[in-house]
Amino acid sequence: MLIGELGRRTGVNTHQLRYYEAQGLLEADRGANGYREYDESAVLRVKQIRHLLGAGLSSEDIAYLLPCAVGEAPELPGCPELLAAMRARLRRLDEQMEQLARSRAALTTYVDTAERMGAENYPPFDGSDQEPVPA
């Protein structure tokens, strides 16, 4: 099947499919006309990639895990190397969540302080003459 059909069958745009191929996550043969041609297994592979991306894994993590993936969800066998990679990603996510919690607490303190100081001491702010505060 051509890349457009693979995209329709998986709900993934062709730009993303090309990216998956560039990252070594998806393989395509080339027809005589130079077009990418995928076999039927590519549908399952793309669904596996989407699930693993949804779990917060990087394309590098997925390239490592994907050869062991079974089924659409996918299931991953509990071999030590795979477990180590997934645990490392889980630790990174935990660290990011802790940092976000600290940032949220600090911002909440600033908001509370500003509210206590009272908005009546300041002119109304419509934001039209200032740059937005970066997120």
UniProtKB/TrEMBL annotation:
Record-linked CDD domains: HTH_MerR-like_sg3
InterPro entries in the cross-refs: DNA-bd_dom_put_sf (IPR009061), MerR-type_HTH_dom (IPR000551), MerR_fam (IPR047057)
A Pfam family hit: MerR_1
Gene3D superfamilies: 1.10.1660.10
Domain HTH merR-type: residue ranges: 1-68
Gene Ontology molecular-function annotations: DNA binding; DNA-binding transcription factor activity
Oxidoreductase is among the record's keywords: no
Keyword Membrane: no
PROSITE patterns in the record: HTH_MERR_2
Keyword field: DNA-binding
Classification via SMART domains: HTH_MERR
UniProt name for this protein: MerR family transcriptional regulator
